[in-house]
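Q&A FORM
Asked by: J.P.
Topic: structure of BTB domain-containing protein

PROVIDED:
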Amino acid sequence: MSAKLSNLVLKEYTKILKTGEFSDVEILVGEKQNTKTFHLHSLILKVCSPYFRIFEILINYIYSGKLELAKNDIKTIIELLIAADELCLNELCSYIEKYLLNDKESLKSNFILILNTIEKYDQFTILSQFCKTSCRKDPSIVFRADDFVTIGQECFLEFLTKYSDSLKQIEVWNKLTEWAIAKSNNELPSDATMWTIDNITTFGTLIQPFISHINFQKVSSIDFITKIKPFKSIFDDKFYNKIVEDHCLNADLTSPQIVKYLDSQIINLRDASLICNWIKAMKKQKWEVTYDFDLLVVSCSFVNSGV
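REPLIED BY: S.T.
REPLY: Here is the structure written out as tokens.
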């Protein structure tokens, strides 16, 4: 809508506010003799303010006992839950929480909305328990939420304090990068490979409080080189050198990748795992293939005979 047209609409709004024409809502403001009645329009109020949409739903519930939550999205339902709590409609609050719990997929998709809600309103015990149980079982549920980037800094820090050790550390770094881009007010391009020195400085400022919560020692060397080293400048020199030193010292101690497929017609995975145990001189058998087996020669007779 152009500025000229917008101004015209606002003038019409002002006119009907003064005249009260077509009004269908009256709001009385003031006390005793000092009061004033405003003649307003429910359509305009509902379009401009979510509060009035929620208020209408609550009024209908109070007068009729009917509530059709299925017609509303989860954000509206959460707003309704908060409004019901403020009006001390405890039975309605309990009903709404149980309704939300029956749609776990929506809760998972909007997990940050739920987290932010229970952070402010700890009386919503059903939702609170759902969040706590979900995080204990699988902390990465936070990262998979559609609304992940809306998580607040304090909430994010608290989450990492509790669950960072249960998460893949490179995943923490990747999601932290995604979060910082969203919080940068369009200062950071979505493609980190295009960042300027100033962009990297902005990034460093945003993620500084989180760095101590990442165990860089558990990041693979290839991920460290490709995804973290380009941002070396955001780290304290002493801290960065310690990370590199730890990587060098512990290179042999990192958990090897487990091979799931073997391109061979002669040996199978169990045979390969036995060979791995011989190489490591392991007394106790461990049925994992932790070395790469490369196929060097293929006989034509084998190929033709299907061996």
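FOLLOW-UP: Residues 1-48 form one domain.
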